[in-house]
Write a structure and sequence with these properties.
By secondary structure, the protein is α+β, with helices and mostly antiparallel strands. Among the domains are: 134-262, Prolyl oligopeptidase, N-terminal domain (Methylamine Dehydrogenase, Chain H, 7 Propeller); 467-713, Alpha/Beta hydrolase fold, catalytic domain (Rossmann fold). Helices cover 19% and strands 32% of the residues. GO terms for molecular function: serine-type endopeptidase activity. Residues 123-453 form the Peptidase S9A N-terminal domain.
Length: 729
């Protein structure tokens, strides 16, 4: 579901996050300034769990959605205060203890840290020299972002002569990152959202462009925004990790702001985007399993939104528009995977049931094959492109609206991730995108609709990785389901059973494992490590059914999948338990922590980043703002005793016992609003006690006591960090 919310995001720059500062009202234009090297820029980012990329604009964030607010609700005011004080004191004591432990242990790794940091900086410099910022072309004007500045140049001009139209530093946002950019159709206004690493909320700054750009308006706590007309901006507000209100604001004549839409159901999250041809602005209200779309006619931006189809439980749909026709991407019908549907009836209320009953105004354009994941979708003048994933391989399907044909192109076998570039003008004849893998830096490709072929771009040569071998395996799970595994190792490595192995897992929310390029992964390959990515159920690697088969009452299937994946790797000679480490982040901590309890002998170490490790207690706390929304993933233990017992059977925190555990390294964040730090502190405390109790009871010569280390980062917010911060980690 999250992958499809990348639909046609248009002019989206994704970097990292801003800080709240003063908002000066004017800025000067700078001309003839040579652009600097790009700092951090990500056009659309995927789920990837805990990547150095952000979530795409207009998407429901795929990670844990929990507030940091703790403390039991009790009737007595006196008792309530005592409870809060006690909870706060426990939190502070645990945090202080862990910080002291970290200060004692971290010097041991000083020499290793220095060597690794130098190596990563070398690789980063080597593989980022060619990573220029994406360009957005509007007629003769080209806009691009670098180093916190937005530049404007002419299409045929040298970019060294570009003018700066916006600067985070000059406006007092020196530690801010540009997250999203939207330019009005007549290019008189530009809307920019800024975020920091320490906050979930963004501030939207509207600039009036001209000889001297001026700050027209500042809107706090904004999630998504789009121009419906030259001077009409729609935006959604984010409050307490929820996005449920849509506003409209105008900038000429009678300036005003009004509420346009409010979502009443706590399970739903609202975002907005424009269709590729800018004919409609869509208001999208989505839960984890259901969606509803309202249309705003951009030719009449003050008219009330029109409902496309009332929400139907279990049915997800998204809207695009071309040549006075609506294209609906929906899960309606069997099988419950995505299908592309065409209808002429875009003004009146549309009933999805007409598709099944064979009404003449509906036409099935395309249906996905079994176990195929729709990763992204882009509409152009006479064609649309679908990026698909099947058994670990990436495909490009081009649907022609002229010839009514579908061409399928298999992308290079080494590719594991793709990044679709921005195409503001839907009439363009070329689609640009980048391919990468954990050990292959991004390489730019283009598909030409005129030539009907795929072209590998080589503007600046990317160093070729020649010493890495990619293997794709299938492990048979407990119920005979085949689970994909992707393995990378150095071709020159001998005796692979003696090599260290790093296993990655996620398995939640229908989100794929992040397999984009990371310098640290390439470093491990060069040093003889084996990398394995286990695409277990609960994730989205094989379509929506793959997610459904691993959520709620099916969560244990993901654990079974992970177990057989690691066992198969060892059986095939990829390392052995005493040289195996398991890595997970956010909700991936559920399966990793569960395996650590049930099969600690399979691994020697576990590395977790902002892990979700106490499912039961979190889902029992209805005062948390996102507990209701999360019930579609984990279930509702408050109303269903079977659900409560089922969660209790796999919840990492609930199942810690006195036994020999692997060593554990956890990174957590003080400002994490999704996975509260208190829960991580309690998990580490309980885990360390269980490991030490086991060591005391079984004191033998050479008895191994695991290292259980927690590094609490003062900066950063839930798996999201700049290059500098992630380098330090």
């Amino acid at each position: 579901c999250a992958g499809l919310r990348y639909l046609l995001q248009g002019l989206s720059f994704s970097a990292k996050y801003y800080s709240k500062h003063n908002h000066p009202q004017t800025m000067c234009a700078y001309s003839k300034i040579k652009p600097k090297k790009c700092h951090v820029l990500d056009l659309k980012s995927s789920e990837s769990t805990c990547a150095h990329r952000t979530v795409p604009p207009g998407s429901i964030l795929p990670w844990r959605f929990f507030s940091c607010k703790e403390g039991a609700k009790v009737p007595s005011k006196r008792k309530q205060n005592t409870s809060i004080v006690t909870t706060d004191l426990l939190h502070k004591n645990l945090l202080k203890s862990e910080q002291e432990n970290w200060n004692d242990i971290s010097p041991i790794y000083k020499a290793m840290t220095k060597r690794i940091k130098e190596k990563l900086e070398e690789l980063h410099n080597m593989y980022t020299f060619n990573s220029g910022s994406p360009r957005m072309r509007f007629g003769e004007n080209v806009y691009f972002e670098e180093n916190g500045c937005i530049f404007l140049s002419k299409a045929d001009d040298d970019e060294g002569n570009a003018d700066i139209v916006f600067s985070t530093e000059d406006l007092g946002f020196s530690d801010a990152f540009i997250q999203r950019i939207r330019i009005s159709p007549d290019q008189r206004y530009m809307a920019i959202s800024l975020k920091s690493e320490n906050s979930e909320e963004a501030t939207c700054i509207i600039m009036k462009l001209g000889h001297i750009p001026v700050v027209e308006k500042v809107i706090p706590s904004v999630f998504s925004f789009e121009w419906a007309a030259n001077d009409v901006l729609y935006y959604t507000s984010l409050k307490n990790l929820k996005c449920q209100n849509v506003f409209m604001t105008t900038f000429t004549y009678q300036k005003h702001t009004k509420l346009v839409y409010t979502e009443q159901d706590a399970r739903f999250f609202v975002d907005i985007y424009c269709t590729k041809d800018r004919r409609f602005l869509t208001i999208n209200s989505n839960s984890k399993t259901t969606s509803e779309v309202w249309l705003v006619d951009c030719r009449h931006p003050f008219a009330s939104p029109v409902l496309v189809q009332a929400r139907t439980p279990g049915v997800i749909y998204h809207i695009e528009h071309r040549n006075d026709q609506l294209y609906i991407l929906t899960t309606h019908g069997e099988p419950a995977e995505y299908k592309a549907i065409l209808t002429d009836n875009y003004i009146h209320r549309i009933n999805l049931d007409t598709y099944c009953s064979g009404k003449e105004n509906w036409q099935l354009v395309y249906a996905l094959e079994n176990k195929t994941k729709l990763v992204d979708f882009e509409m152009f003048g006479d064609d649309c492109i679908m990026f698909l994933k099947n058994t670990g391989c990436l495909y490009l399907n081009v649907i022609s609206f002229v010839s009514h044909s579908v061409q399928s192109i298999k992308l290079p076998t080494w590719a594991c991730e793709f990044e679709l570039e921005s195409h503001p003008e839907h009439t363009t004849s070329t689609c640009y995108f980048q391919l990468s893998s954990p050990v292959h830096p991004p390489k730019r490709f283009a598909y030409s609709f005129k030539e009907n072929n795929l072209i590998e771009q080589a503007v600046q040569e990317v160093p070729i990785i020649t010493n890495c071998h990619t293997t794709r395996l299938l492990a048979k799970s407990k119920d005979e389901t085949l689970v994909p595994i992707t393995v990378f190792h150095n071709k020159n490595s001998k005796e692979l059973h003696r090599r260290p192995l790093l296993v990655h897992v996620y398995g939640a929310y229908g989100i794929d494992l992040n397999m984009s390029f990371k310098e640290e992964k390439l470093m491990l390959i060069e040093e003889g490590w084996i990398l394995a990515y286990c695409h277990v159920r609960g994730g989205g690697e094989q379509g929506l059914s793959w997610h459904r088969d691993g959520c709620q009452h099916n969560k244990l299937k993901g654990l079974h999948d992970l177990r057989v994946c690691i066992a198969l790797l060892h059986e095939l000679g990829f390392s052995q338990p005493k040289h195996t480490a398991l890595a997970a982040a956010s909700a991936g901590g559920v399966l990793a922590g569960a395996l650590c309890n049930t099969d600690p002998g399979l691994i020697r170490a576990m590395v977790l980043q902002a892990p979700f490790v106490d499912v039961l207690n979190t889902m029992m706390k209805t005062h948390l703002p996102l507990t209701t929304e999360e019930q579609e993933e984990w279930g509702n233990p408050l109303e269903d005793e079977k659900c409560m017992n089922y969660i209790k059977s796999y919840c990492p925190y609930q199942n810690i016992k006195t036994q020999c555990y692997p060593s554990v390294f956890i990174t957590a964040y003080e400002n994490d609003e999704r996975v509260p730090l208190t829960g991580v502190l309690q998990y580490v405390h309980k885990l360390r006690k269980a490991a030490l109790d086991h060591a005391r009871r079984t004191s033998k010569k050479g008895n191994w006591i695991p290292n259980i280390i927690l590094d609490v980062q003062a900066n950063g917010s839930h798996c999201d960090a700049s290059w500098e911060h992630s380098l330090n980690e």
